[in-house]
Amino acid sequence: MAYKKVGKQTVCFANPPVITGFASVVGKKEGQGPLSGTFDRIHDDTTFGEATWEKAESRMQKDTLNLAAEKSGISLSAIEYLFGGDLLNQCIGTTFSVKDCGVPFFGLFGACSTMAEGLILASMMIDGGYAEYAAAVTSSHFCSAERQFRFPLEYGGQRPPTSQWTVTGAGGVILSSTGTGPKVTHATVGVIQDLGIKDANNMGAAMAPAAYDTISSFLSDTAQTPDAFDLIVTGDLGMTGKNILIELFKKDQTDIVKVYDDCGVMIFDKGQDVHSGGSGCGCSASVLCGYILSSLNQGLLHRVLFCGTGALMSPTSAQQGQSIPGICHLVCITSP
Is the pTM of this model over 0.85? Predict the structure, then answer.
């Protein structure tokens, strides 16, 4: 078998998996942002017709996966492996969304990097010859995340400028060994970085070093420069983390500004009172499965580095005063 590892951390797929279907479903606030025209569905009712926020998140994710499969032209039963996760304890948002679909399932937790992590693993399944079809799906919900990680909504606490707004959104992709659509050509698996930041309202700063490490590793492993890509996008550093990442690359005499953006910055505009920007598993997932993949399909983008960033914390670790480890997983996607 051909060895597919390139350099220290990167995989080059011999038979690049094809993204034949993708879908994004978001809430009302996200639908009022600058990317509103790229989402498949925008719900005005953030309960999605359910009795609890957690059930609403499961419903949103279930609708997203069904829609992605429908756009791919296959039934859910044709999917051979499903990778999914969310921010809730024990990933219950995903568990209850997929428990009745009858598909072999891997539950993931990569915090906000979960979409990239799922995309990497699903691609490995297909390129390795273990499946013809695989899927990746993830979500987050502002209200369920607030209840778990911060304060009850009724508390109305003040947020510092570095804080981010958890996106109510979900994204899902169907990958195939054949067909037409954007292709996943490379993947770089991240290494945990922890610089000792403990402020849960400054996750961009906690995650930026991981983004720097993974992107630098990919560029080194593949002997490429940032200008080889139309877009290098992180998710979700917010404005604070985005500026830190730019400065980290400047120290290397590497200019990424012309091709770089962040999903947490892209999904909201400044007038929406989200401070540093968006966050949550559903942020990068909905931007990927809305704006980015649509632009690749339309030929508006040709080569994209999708770099999912995650703060690997929990309510318990935060309450015990532990630092916030960061991770970043990278996927290179090209137009059809």
Answer: yes
pLDDT, mean over the chain: 92
| CB distance 147 to 53 below 8 Å | yes
pLDDT at 218 over 90: yes
Q: How many CB atoms lie within 10 A of CB 89?
A: 13
Cβ neighbours of residue 57 closer than 8 Å, sequence gap 6 or more:
86, 88, 93, 97, 139, 140, 141, 144, 170
The residues that bridge with 278 in the sheet, in sequence order, are: 165
For 145-185, the pLDDT digits (tens) are: 676 665 555 445 566 667 777 899 999 999 999 999 999 99
d(C-alpha 213, C-alpha 210), whole Å: 5
pLDDT in tens, 1-12: 568 999 999 999
Residue type, 262: D
